Amino acid sequence: MPHSDILAAAGLTQAELTGGSLTVTTPVDGSEIARLKTHSTAEAEAQIAAAKSAFKSWRLVPAPRRGELVRLLGDELRKEKENLGRLVTLECGKIYQEGLGEVQEMIDICDFAVGLSRQLYGLTIASERPGHAMRESWHPMGTCGIITAFNFPVAPWCWNAALALVCGDPVIWKPSEKTPLTALAVQKICERAMAAFGDDAPEGLIQVLIGERDLGEALTASKDVAIISATGSVPMGKAVAADMSKRLGRTILELGGNNAMIVAPSADLEMALRAIVFSAVGTAGQRCTSLRRLIVHEDIYDQLIPRLIKAYEGLPIGDPLADGTLVGPLIDGAALDAMTSALERAQAEGGTVHGGTRALADSHADAAYVHPAIAEMPAQTAIMHTETFAPILYVVKYSDLDQAIEMQNEVPQGLSSCIFSTDVRETEYFLSAAGSDCGIANVNIGPSGAEIGGAFGGEKETGGGRESGSDAWKGYMRRQTNTVNYSRELPLAQGIKFDI
Ligand code: UN1
């Protein structure tokens, strides 16, 4: 399908796609697909003011009714799954199957949030005083600013927005400047859902800001943005956290990962092989959950690694829109440079690199296709402590599980992790307090491809935030402790006497 048809099918008009200063190129072939008009910081401030006034009425709409808006959003997304999935592929380069998967994540979180809209439960608490009742109430918090990255241009917005909306919070989205088109297409889908919902969806409830970093800074600077949920690099997260700490605003941070798999002697190597390839080369190694470090027991190293190298050699690399492609392009030339220099460092640190060179340079001179790389390392060297957003899989040997877990936990990031083993003593140990230090720890599946039902996020430099399922909704509400005295006395807590 020509690029212009993909844009049109996603509802984007020529008038919107031209005449602005933000040039959008597709990583598929490096060609320009739009010049978008950007928002000014004054417009960002106007959006913040509109959200503030939307909050006044939205917080009073009963939560199950707020859920109805998210149900309608899920319905619209179901209708648009292919069109939006294809646009995701065109704009960020992940293969079409993964583009569809990303839209499916949006649909799934909408379903989850609809159910949640009737389950924003608080506690009742035993009071120490006679004739007193205590409880905990959850109230809407205020506007939620959502900052997202190019690699998952739409799903993380929805993990945040679906929850924030049922929790009573307006949302303002600042997408990556590399992927603004998917954000515009989603905004249109939201507008249809709001129109179907009717009058109690106030103006300013769901908004999007197109442009550069200054717009994100307008969100972090404003006391009228109660929460910032940011997905992206560690430096971006540190900048957001620093700004937000100045006004003690709430953050939900989902930053870098440096995810490992331990392959133990008892592992099912067929399964491990498939899991390794999907999690290391899926999205061309540009997921925050991508597998980056493979820690393999020395007894099975020679059975697994040659097969893995062979599997890499046969990977179909190319147009992510074409059937059968498994590895699409990197986002841009800068990503290719970062990959090349990481591999040079790996070699300088004693590594042996397989693959890792540029692919399709003749047919796609303006795009950044690569052969995914495997780097066999003598130990967990310095380069392995950093996250390079590219398909590089570092491989090291281990001899004892404690040493493997120590290596797995040694890096500054703490998002996802996994072990392949059929020995329950090993797998339970890996999940125990002495095991993985990550927010996600899996057994016999790879580190990527989390379902929306669980809380998503991780520790250390990953930022500590949790999004998506479980009780992540609490991050979008304020907790209020209520004590009600229904007696005719006024006993004080802690038995204090204070007679006047
Ligand atoms: C990301 O890369 O920012 O677990 C998110 C996964 C996906 C989400 C990745 N569900 O791989």
From TrEMBL:
The Aldehyde dehydrogenase domain, residue ranges: 21-481
Secretion signal, residue range per the UniProt entry: none
Keyword DNA damage among UniProt keywords: no
PROSITE patterns, per the entry: ALDEHYDE_DEHYDR_GLU
Keyword Acyltransferase among UniProt keywords: no
Active site (UniProt): 254
EC number: 1.2.1.3
Pfam families: Aldedh
UniProtKB keywords: NAD, Oxidoreductase, Plasmid
Assembly description: Homotetramer.
Assigned protein family: Belongs to the aldehyde dehydrogenase family.
UniProt-recorded name of the protein: aldehyde dehydrogenase (NAD(+))
Natural source organism: Leisingera caerulea
